[in-house]
Write a structure and sequence with these properties.
The termini are far apart. The longest helix is centred in the N-terminal third of the chain and has 23 residues. By secondary structure, this protein is an alpha+beta fold.
Amino acid sequence: MNKIWIPLFSVFVLLAFSWLYLVNHKQAGTVTLQFQARVGDKPLEFNQTRYANPGGEGKFQIRHLQLYLSNIQLQGKEQRFQVADSYHLARFDNAAKSYLLELHDVPYDKYSKVNISIGVDESANASIMARGDLDPNNRMAWNWQVGYKFILFEGTLAHAQKIQPLVYHVGFSENLKALQFHLPEPITPGSAPVNFDVDILAMFSSSVNINMAALPTVKFDRNDARLIAENYASMITLSADDSAYSALEKSEP
């Protein structure tokens, strides 16, 4: 009888230790970030002249919109997870007008903060090496120097019975904006997506109201680019479904 119980006891002990291991070493998984575009309190619609000029008369439409999100980090109780080659070209020209970003192989932890930068850090911005969604041959690359547009916005403004082209290409290294979001509840790999709102109108109205008729193009002037960048630092917020709080801009990139 004892000869039977000894192997059974060994199996029980092995199963118990296996269960304890799984409890204390939970598996890595996926964290999903979803970015929903809007224009103020209106949904994003391309090629529709329906949005009021924040700093003047007329209404504008959006034809093209892209931006780089980068250096994404998750901060948890035990560790900080840095996404490798974290350069992501966010586009919203789809039916949902949203951008979905899945972070794979995230170690198990209870993550309470998400760090996201708008733009490209200086080392990558000065390189022709393809990393993540950085590609020196795509339309986000400058054609007059090495580097990338952090945000590309193109459209038109209708005012005074005229149609005025709008071109905002912003991408000097100092225009990088590092943001930190405090989640209302910690997330773990496999949790429901973390939802963000991307307010395109904030590019022209969050810190300074910009009259598009007076400033229809921003490309090469650093002071003009700084105005847009100071505004777009506030364009991404946690969705009202997740939190009532906006991002805090970090003092360091």
